[in-house]
């Protein structure tokens, strides 16, 4: 794992989803951390400050939307992608309002996940230049 290695947190109460994302993220060359609910996700963010989080909306103990709001207050630079099997305009709006950068419907497309990871890797690698306005995105 080189300089482009990200710490990626996967927060989902379904072991199968965590397992699939674990494989995809590791194949992309990144470190994966797991949480089974929103409280665990919040604690992991406190400890490791991941660059990217994939988080389910509906989880026990603390749902993903509540965890999202707390994560963005704790670590504003952490990018959060929300995932849900109960996709609706309201869920998307609430997720984006709380700071999510994307919302994915479950079951998700593996190629879409790979593309998102590649995009976030590029953004992290080029963050300073992007902030300085060195790149023009069309």
UniProtKB/TrEMBL annotation:
Modified residues (4-aspartylphosphate): 56
Listed CDD domains: REC
Key words, A-Z: Kinase, Phosphoprotein, Transferase
GO biological process, one term: phosphorelay signal transduction system
Claim: Cell inner membrane is one of the keywords in the record: no
Domain Response regulatory residue range list: 7-121
InterPro entries reported in the protein's UniProt record: Bact_response_regulator, CheY-like_superfamily, Sig_transdc_resp-reg_receiver
Gene Ontology molecular functions: kinase activity
Domain of life according to the entry: Bacteria
Biological function: May play the central regulatory role in sporulation. It may be an element of the effector pathway responsible for the activation of sporulation genes in response to nutritional stress. Spo0A may act in concert with spo0H (a sigma factor) to control the expression of some genes that are critical to the sporulation process.
Protein name per its UniProtKB record: Stage 0 sporulation protein A homolog
């Amino acid at each position: 794992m080189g300089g482009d290695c990200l710490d990626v947190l996967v927060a989902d109460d379904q072991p199968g989803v965590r397992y699939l994302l674990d494989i995809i993220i590791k194949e992309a060359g990144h470190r994966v951390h797991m949480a089974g609910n929103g409280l665990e996700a919040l604690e992991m963010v406190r400890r490791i400050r991941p660059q990217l989080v994939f988080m389910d909306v509906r989880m026990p103990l603390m749902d993903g939307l509540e965890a999202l709001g707390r994560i963005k207050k704790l670590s504003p630079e952490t990018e959060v992608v929300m995932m849900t099997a109960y996709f609706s305009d309201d869920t998307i709006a609430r997720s984006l309002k709380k700071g999510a950068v994307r919302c994915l419907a479950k079951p998700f497309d593996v190629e879409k996940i790979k593309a998102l990871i590649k995009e976030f890797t590029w953004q992290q690698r080029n963050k300073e230049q992007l902030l300085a306005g060195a790149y023009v995105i069309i």
